[in-house]
Amino acid sequence: MLYERWRRIARENQNELALRDLTSGEQWTFGQLAKLTEKADVPPKPVAYPSGIRAEFVLDVLKAWRSGQVVCPLEPGQSSPAIRSIPPGVVHLKLTSATTGTRKLVAFTAAQIMADAENIVQTMGLRPEWPNFGVISLAHSYGFSNLVTPLLLHGIPLILSNSALPESLRQATGLGGEGITVPAVPALWRIWHEARVITDQVRLSISAGAPLPLKLEEAAFSRVGVKIHNFYGATECGGIAYDDSSSPRSDAACVGRAMQNVELKAGADGRLEVRSAAVAKSYWTKRSSDLGNGLFRTTDIAEFKDGLIYLRGRLTDQINVAGRKVLPETIERVLLQHPDVRECVVFGVSSSELERVENIVACLATRRELALRTLQQFAVGRLPAWQVPRQWWFVSQIKSNARGKVVRSKLRDQYLNAKRADAAEAGC
């Protein structure tokens, strides 16, 4: 099904430019890509593991589709999972980002892969005249669904670069003709904004993988009139919601409206439930009632208002403060209102007095040195006393992973390790 669709796309666009690799300087038309795929030898293995931000990734996917291999994209250096068998009808396996636990394999049929690509192209208005610029991971669900399948299943050209430096964006905008579409993560949008390389040649700007800060969205819009559209999705179901507005949001919790052909609602426990033809078949091999039969139950707490979806936090991230629970996002939104707070992540750590009770920790990266008392007073004036962080951790920057996500559990571990090191040094 996937390869037949690709062959039709290649025939209809055979003389049009399909793929350009800025790193190698090579480029291919749709017809040339099709010929390369037909000539290529395919190893007699049941699973293909494409990797890297390079043209070979695309060719590996096409070869797998042609030969009937299951595609399981990997990040560079990532070990391949132990796959002893393949579920019937499955053509694609995705690895979750492990932000809510251990990584899992998610199994997809061809129809589900095609449905997600269709939803993204329709909702976002991707078009051949605005080639996609790819610097994000092609192995991640976001990159695969926004860059690889639009190219192969809808004829949206792709410009690839394994460098996210400002010069790469500047180079890509010069090659895009009428303009380019850029799916990226907030950290990249910040770098490009500060380097002043975002121009009106970036005709469609998309941000996903992590929450898009309002200040960054507003600054890019104010400087060059470029609206960065917030996109929300999940490995298990592809695109969920998209901010299609033409001006900056007023609430960072807003992730836009439901994608076309996607039905959303809040479950009895407040969790967002996603129904669409793009929802995966199942986890593999350990199945879950939260995924399957066209339904995915996320761990995100959702609120609906005037057709828009607002994420109020993640069920698994709740902090237990003396029997009362608070979502860290509630505190983060307040602290980020301080003009000198650039980044903020809040998490809980177990109290030494009672393990089931947690202390709230605020990890902050600030624009200038701030007195702790200043921030405490700022928080006290805007939060209930029990939600004011007990512990404050100042860092130069809060690092995200390759997928643009900040993993709270890892940040918590880093904080605890730093505390232990300080205690050990003091003991010496």
Question: Could you characterize what this model shows?
Answer:
- The chain is of the alpha/beta class.
- It has 2 domains: 2-312, ANL, N-terminal domain (Rossmann fold, 3-Layer(aba) Sandwich), CATH 3.40.50.12780; 318-427, GMP Synthetase, Chain A, domain 3, CATH 3.30.300.30.
- The protein has 11 helices and 24 strands.
- The chain has helices at 2-12, 30-39, 55-67, 110-124, 141-154, 166-173, 186-194, 214-224, 328-335, 372-380, 408-427, and strands at 17-21, 27-29, 47-48, 70-71, 90-95, 105-109, 132-134, 158-160, 180-184, 202-207, 228-234, 238-242, 254-258, 263-266, 271-275, 282-284, 291-292, 295-305, 308-314, 319-321, 324-326, 341-350, 358-366, 391-394.
- The strands form 6 sheets. Strands 9, 10, 11, 12, 13, 14, 15, 17, 18 and 19 form a 10-stranded mixed beta sheet that branches. The protein has a 4-stranded mixed beta sheet with strand order 2-1-8-7. Strands 5-6-16 form a 3-stranded antiparallel beta sheet.
- Strand 18 (295-305) and strand 19 (308-314) form a beta hairpin.
- Helix 1 (2-12) crosses helix 2 (30-39), helix 2 packs across helix 3 and helix 4 packs across helix 5 (141-154).
Spell out the key features of this protein.
428 residues, alpha/beta, Rossmann fold, GMP Synthetase, Chain A, domain 3, 2 domains, 30% helix, globular
Could you provide a short overview of the structure?
The protein has helices at residues 2-12, 30-39, 55-67, 110-124, 141-154, 166-173, 186-194, 214-224, 328-335, 372-380, 408-427, and strands spanning 17-21, 27-29, 47-48, 70-71, 90-95, 105-109, 132-134, 158-160, 180-184, 202-207, 228-234, 238-242, 254-258, 263-266, 271-275, 282-284, 291-292, 295-305, 308-314, 319-321, 324-326, 341-350, 358-366, 391-394. With 428 residues, it is α/β, with parallel strands linked by helices. The strands form 6 sheets. Strands 9, 10, 11, 12, 13, 14, 15, 17, 18 and 19 form a 10-stranded mixed sheet that branches. A 4-stranded mixed sheet has the order 2-1-8-7.
